[in-house]
Design a protein that fits this description.
The chain contains no helices and eleven strands.
């Protein structure tokens, strides 16, 4: 079965950095688009960044130049490097995949990121 597990969240001061990891299994990782979303209290879940099987990336305007998504297909893991963090980046961050040939989209349990002094 498909499993998606995020890690790496925490409390960080404004201007600081964190790296999130998402380990996935149960499908052919290297062939699939992987994405990070986030959801702040009282707000809708939004796309933060995505990466195709070929390594092409896309970002929300709010994180361009600060966040970097990458993947290691040998480890079935996608990363989100977050620099210059702002209080408005505070949210639960989720990893998502809709594996080719499968009917469903899969989410991890989320990892909390809090940016506060």
């Amino acid at each position: 079965q498909v499993q998606v597990v995020e890690s790496g969240g925490g409390l960080v001061q404004p201007g600081g950095s964190l790296r999130l990891s998402c380990a996935a299994s149960g499908f052919t990782f290297g062939l699939n688009y992987m994405a990070w979303y986030r959801q702040a209290p009282g707000k809708q879940r939004e796309l933060v960044a995505g990466i195709t099987s070929g390594g092409t990336t896309n970002y929300a305007d709010s994180v361009k130049g600060r966040f970097t998504i990458s993947r290691d297909n040998a480890k079935n893991t996608v990363y989100l490097q977050m620099n210059s963090l702002k209080p408005e980046d505070t949210a639960v961050y989720y990893c998502n995949v809709a594996p080719r040939g499968m009917a469903n989209s899969y989410w991890g349990q989320g990892t909390q990121v809090t940016v506060s002094s």
